[in-house]
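Usage example:
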Amino acid sequence: MESKNLTIQDVAKRANVSVATVSRVINNSSLVREATRSKVLEVIETLGYSPNFLGRDLRRDQTMRILLLTPSLIWPIMLDLFRGIDDAAQRHGYSVIAAPTTNSKKKEQELIAMLKNRFVDGLIVIGSTLSPQELDDLGKQYSLVQCSEWKETKYTSIVSIDDKKAGYDAISYLIKSGHKRIAMIGSKNSGSALLRLQGYQEAIAKAGLKFDESLVKFGDFTYEDGLCLTKDLLKLEDKPTAIFCINDVVAVGCVNALKKNGIRVPDEVAVVGFDDTKEALMSIPEITTIAQPKYELGYRTFELLINQMNQEGSNYQNITLEHNLILRGSTVNIDIKE
Amino acid sequence: MESKNLTIQDVAKRANVSVATVSRVINNSSLVREATRSKVLEVIETLGYSPNFLGRDLRRDQTMRILLLTPSLIWPIMLDLFRGIDDAAQRHGYSVIAAPTTNSKKKEQELIAMLKNRFVDGLIVIGSTLSPQELDDLGKQYSLVQCSEWKETKYTSIVSIDDKKAGYDAISYLIKSGHKRIAMIGSKNSGSALLRLQGYQEAIAKAGLKFDESLVKFGDFTYEDGLCLTKDLLKLEDKPTAIFCINDVVAVGCVNALKKNGIRVPDEVAVVGFDDTKEALMSIPEITTIAQPKYELGYRTFELLINQMNQEGSNYQNITLEHNLILRGSTVNIDIKE
DNA sequence: TTGAAAGCGCTACCAA
DNA sequence: TTGGTAGCGCTTTCAA
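Running the assembly step on the lines above writes:
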């Protein structure tokens, strides 16, 4: 199974040149005679030689690799986030590797060790169990940017939308549509979710409606939570006429719970989701949602990160991108084209 | 941003011991006096030293890391597959890192380079654009196992279910339920999908039904394909009474298309999905599906991989695990508990 | 139980 | 345009 473990020495010997020259060829140095270059390349080809990056990276003290740290890689928003990060990275010659922590402290530490142990040059964090203090400690010593799902820190850069305003906008829209009894299915396990709740409360207050705690439920971003918590809401004396869900998957659960109870969407109850992921389209009716500029969030995150990696001095920035509301059948009666 | 770049030398100096001793402490060698050990550990703590793994791995010619190569990390089956791989890896002291190729040849080559460049010790491939020949070339030289979504090769190990039999079982079940006009929404972009189609054909043949090409549609595993291709099926003169979908997401699209056309599921048309992912539950009715033992597939895959990494000689195995059919509302009228 | 030192594969400096 | 070589940080053998 072990490959032949060829080294730059083997190539040099075979090509009758020095290792320095081989190294130059590998790294596309311009100061190699064309004839020499092609000879070396030919030997590399024949031998099937691949340079050992451990040696290279050790010598250069740089890996051109970054790590994406996140509880789950299968989050619906992850695809576009990753594409944004990866495209930006590619542009600068960096590779992105990823690993899910599944919210395990141990796993998280193990991955952060990859940063400390010089296996990657920088870290992008999209949600973690790390405390703001821990994030700050890391941020002070290493290159680190938080993206989308973040915690308040002094020493890390952050790229995200304005979650509070997003919550505010969602609720304001529902209020404008005539709703007075608006529920929310949120989560306590996420900074962003809590901010969206603040937005909810502000919008309610501003409209002169009274805040009713029983209209706010907390779950964990899953379809099942959407299903169950909606059922809970339906048990209330004074039922909501609109429900704001923390993401689209929850919103699909919400819509399905309503339908199972014979409640018409959007006529009797309107539903708003979040993220504009493909799940928002997997329901009948489709889900009105707040869209995050996921690709751009990712792209800008890498740009901030490479800034930090290249700079000596510290330079922490917060970048806020615009969200927007996408209207679909779960809040408005739209003609369905078939 | 740069951390202080402490080395084992710094620790040695500060602790008044040799680097060899520090190394022994780091690696939990038993031949260090307890007093020495604690002194060294204290210095490590004070300084905040983390060993540079590039140096270590270069020296050891081993990284204790493997790479998971797959077109998309957000595939619904990926979560359990990854957990299985990761748990097995953890058990052996290995880390798993992942990267999506998004079916880009270039990205794929870049990631495979990580293997060739000694950045990881082994590779797990869950779907790729690599030809059997390319896979064989890699398999001959490096440690490589295919999992779940695979191609026929001589020189790689494979862990998967028997996809042909799975297709056969799904269709046989529908035939036993009385269906005679059975459609399939498959895909041409996947070996497993093609095998399931073979199973479909065999079951049809065995039951003495005639194979009707117009009942077989090809898409790309997406919700939209489920939606559109089902619409196509409904345009047929002689409509199907059952539809077998290549995965659960497609099946949800299928069910929704049927509902939008006023067709009752399962009374008028029955639907079967594949994979038993969470999407199968996100539909009304829930989707009858073929479950793969995803976690175990992942677990066994790593076990095969570590075998190869530890062995000198070649040792290619095919492991086939059992699938099973899960009955839900899309094929049977089940009392829905509320 | 500890230390000295060679060397993993590579890059990049200096000299030619 | 090329070669010689020091040294990146670490482990591990050998000797003490």
